[in-house]
Amino acid sequence: MADAASGSVDRSVQVKLVLLGEAAVGKSSVVLRFVSNEFQPNKEPTIGAAFLTQKCRLEDRVLRYEIWDTAGQERFHSLAPMYYRNAQAAVVVYDVTKGSSLEKAKSWVKELQRQANPNIVIALAGNKVDLVQSSSSSGNTSTSESEDEADDATATPGETPGSPNGEPESLRQVSREEAHAYATEAGLLFFETSAKTGEGIVEIFTEIAKKIPIEHILASTRGGAGRPGAQGAREGVGRQGGDVNLDENQPKGRDACNC
Amino acid sequence: MADDDGFPDPNYDAIIFGTGLTESIVAAALAKAGFRVAHVDSNPHYGSQDTVFSVEEFVNWLDKDSSILPRPTSASWHGDVPTNHRQYSISLSPSVIHSVGPFISSLVGSGVYRYGEYKLLGPVGIYEGTEIKMVPQSKEDVFKAPNLSLVEKRRLMRFLLFAAGDFENDQQLQGKENQLFLTFLQETFSLNEEIARTIAYSLAYCYSSDEPALPCLNRIRRCLRSAGHYGSSPFLVGSYGGLGDIAQGFCRIVAVCGNTCALNVTVTSAAIVTDGDSPSTRYTVHLDKFPKPIHSRCIISSADLLPDQFRDLAFTPASNTSVDVSNPSAVARAVAIVDQPLQFANIAQSGDDQAEPDSTERPPVDSGVIVFPPKSLQSGSEATSVHAYIQGPGTMSTPAGKWLIYLAMPLAHPPILSAEELLTPYLTETLSKCSSAEISPLFKAFYIQQASALRVPEGRSPSSVIVTPSHCPHIALSGDAAALAAEEVFKRAVKVLKRPDTEDEAPYSFWPPREKSEEPDEDEW
Q1: Is the pLDDT reported for residue A256 higher than 50?
Q2: In this structure, are strands B90-91 and B294-301 parallel, antiparallel, or unpaired?
Q3: With contacts defined as CB-CB under 8 Å, which chain A residues touch B394?
Q4: Test mutation, A44, A67, A76, chain B, max B CBs within 10 A
C-alpha cells in the first residue's frame, strides 16, 4: 500500500462485500481461496480477521474488495446492522450437501433485501461442490482465469485437487437446477463453487465486479456523501468529505489488517 | 451448527452481560488479551442504554418495548414516523467525542475506528440574552473576538494558558480547588460574569453553577488539548448515531477474536459454585434458548442486567481516574426531526455584524452544539444547563435534507413537570434561532432517562462479580467515561483471570500494541 500514500488519487474503487450463510458452509474458506489461494481442511470456525482486502482488475478499473466475514456472529442472530451497512455486494453461501443450508441462504437473502443497500449485488454460491463430483469431472476446474484478473493472485491455478472417492453424487442434497431457478427468480448471480479446488471462486468475484455500478460509486464518493464502504476513498477525498482519519499518525493503509 | 445447539463451548473465562459501550469495550479488551468471553444481552440489538434506533424502533421503545433497562419514563411523541425511518440513527446516548482522550485511545488501540466514520464537530454556540453567540474554538478566535476589550482578552488568554498547563501545582489554585468555579474565574482571573459563564458552560460544559473548580479545570484542559488535533474543534462526531454504533464495533472485535455473542437471550437461572477458597469460585448461568448452561470464572455486567443471584457479590472497582463530572440521577431528553437546514444565523460570530450584517446567508450547520446555561431561558431551568446537539446528513444519522436535534437536561430530583413540558421551551427557542423560516418538527419525542436502579455499595470487597460503573449521560464525556470505566473493569477482571504463575502483566495491558504479524501484508498485490 506504499503506493496509496504517495499516489493519493488511487483509481481503485473500494467495494464492501459481506459474506452470509449458515455456519460451516465454508464462507471463510471461499474468501481464503479468493484472497490467498489457500484451502485449510477442517478449518476452525472463523477467528481472527476483521476484514480482508483483495484487488480485482476489471478492464481499466481496479476494484478493491473489502471482504467482511461474519466472525461467527450469524450464529445467534447477533450480526450488527453495521455489518450490512453500505455493502455493495454480498456472497450468500450454502452447502450443496446440506439441503437446509439453502433454506438458510434464502432467509439471508431476504434479510439483505430488507436491511441492506437496495442496489446491493448478491451472489448465491453453492459450496463444497467437490464433494459431489466424480474424479473425472472435477479435473482441472480452476482454469477459468480470464485476462480480467491479470494481477490477481487468486487467478493462479491452485494445487490439484485430491481425488474424490465413493459415489459422490449421492451426497448432493441441493440440485444445481433447483438453486439456479431460485437464484434467477430472486435476481441473484449463481455459482457452484469449491473452496477446496478453487472451482468457481474467482468467477464469483469477477461477475460481481461486472455488475457493480462503478460509475455510481465513483460519483457518490466524489461528492463526499453516500460513501460506499466504511473505508471508501478515505485516502482520496476523505478530507473534502470532512472525514477525520483517527489513525493518521500511523502509516497509511492498514485497512487490510487482521484484528 | 444450528441456532439451538447452544454455545460452542460450555466454559469461559468471563460471561459479560450487556452490550452497552462500557461492557462492549471490556469484552473486546478481554477478547484481544486472549480470554474466552461469552457476551450476552437480553435485548435484540447491540448497545443497551447506548443503543441506536431507527425512528420506528425508537417509538416502539418509548411506547411499550421494555427491553432496554432502565425504562424511559414520562415519554411522549408527536408527528409521523417517516417511511424511510431506517435511514435515521437515533441515539439513546447522543454525545460528541474528545479528539484526544481515553475513548479515542480505545477506538484506535482496538482498531474499532476502522468500522466507522468521524467528522469534526461544527460550531458551538451559547445562548445568552436571547441570542446564540459563537463560542471561540481557538486562540485566534479569542484574539479576533470583537466583543472583548483588550483587557478582557488578556485576562482570558491568561486563564486559558493556566488551564492548559499543570495547574494542580499552580499557586493560583492552591486552596481553591473546591471553590465554586464561577467564583474562582471571577476572583482569581478577574473575568467578568459573562465570560466566566461562557467558560463554565460552553468550555467546561458545567451542568450547574455550583460545581467546584478543580474538576471543571480538568475538563477544560481536556478540551484545550483536544483542540487542534484533527482540526479546530476539540470534538469529533461519530457517524450513524455515534456511540451506539461504535459499541457494535467493539462487539464485532469480540467475535472476530473467536468468542461468542448472543443477543435476545435471558438468564433463567444462575448459581455461584464455590469449592472452598474464593479464587476458585465458578459461576453457572442457564440461558433461555440454550439447553446447556455455561460456566465462567468471572461475571461482568451492567447494573441493569446483573442476575439477582449474583447481587450479593457484586462490586464496582473504584476508579483512580474519572471524567470529573458527577452523574445526575436522571436526564430529560428530547429528539426532533426537521426538514429545514439549521443555521446559527444570529450568531454574532466576530461581532462585526454591525459592519456587515451577514446573518442571512450562513451555511447550514451539519453538526453543532448549543448550550443553554441555567437561567438563560425565561421559561427554562433555573438550576441546570441544557445541551442541544444538532446532527445533519453529513453525520450519516439522517437522510438528505433532514436534521436531528437532541436536547438533554440533567435532573437532580424527580421533576414535577413532564419531559415534554421541561424541554419544549428549549426546542422552540432552538428552532426559532436556527432558522429564519418557521420550522415545525416532522417528529418530536420526549422522555426521561433514569439512572440505573441498582447501586452497588461502595467499599465492597473485590470479587469476581464486576458491575460496570454507572452510565455517564454527559454530552461531551460519555465516551471517555465509558473507556475509563472499561479499563478499570478490565484490570480487575485480569486480576481474577490471569494464571497465578504469571507475574508479568505485559500481555494483559489494555489494548496491547499490535503485533508485527497483524500488519497488513496484501500490499504487494
Answers
A1: no
A2: unpaired
A3: 225, 242
A4: A76
Judge: B251–A257 Cβ closer than 8 Å, yes or no.
no
- Does B248 reach chain A within 8 Å, measured CB to CB? yes
Distances B491 to B19, B469, B484 between C-alpha atoms, Å = 19, 14, 11
C-alpha to C-alpha distance for A220 and A169, rounded to whole angstroms: 47
Residue listed under C-alpha cell 453553577: B209
Residue ranges and CATH numbers for the domains of chain B are 3-54+240-322+454-515 (3.50.50.60), 61-88+117-135+231-237+328-450 (3.30.519), 138-226 (1.10.405.10)
| C-alpha–C-alpha distance, residues B228 and B226, integer Å | 6
Phi, psi of B291 (to 5 degrees): -70, -35
| Smallest Cα distance from A79 to chain B, Å | 8
**Tell me, what's the pLDDT at B514?**
61
Q: What is the pLDDT of residues B82-92, one digit of tens each?
A: 999 889 999 99
| Separation CA B301–CA B316 (nearest Å) | 10
Work out the angle at residue B170's Cα, subtended by the Cα atoms of residues B169 and B173, and round it to the nearest 5 degrees: 105
Give pLDDT, residue B504: 63
Retrieve residue B156's grid coordinates.
482570558
Domain architecture of chain A: domains with CATH? 12-237 (3.40.50.300)
Residues B117-171: pLDDT tens digits? 899 999 999 999 889 988 887 777 787 777 788 999 999 999 999 999 999 999 9
Contact B252 A244 (CB under 8 A): no
CA B86 to CA B101: how far, in whole Å?
32
pLDDT at B42 over 50: yes
Name the residue among B390, B104, B92, B472 with its Cα closest to residue B245.
Answer: B92
**B contact residues 410-439, partner A, Cβ 8 Å cutoff:** none
ipTM of model: 0.78
SS3 string of B233-267?
CCEEEECCCCHHHHHHHHHHHHHHCCCEEEECCCE
**Rounded distance between C-alpha atoms, residue B247 and residue B89, angstroms:** 14
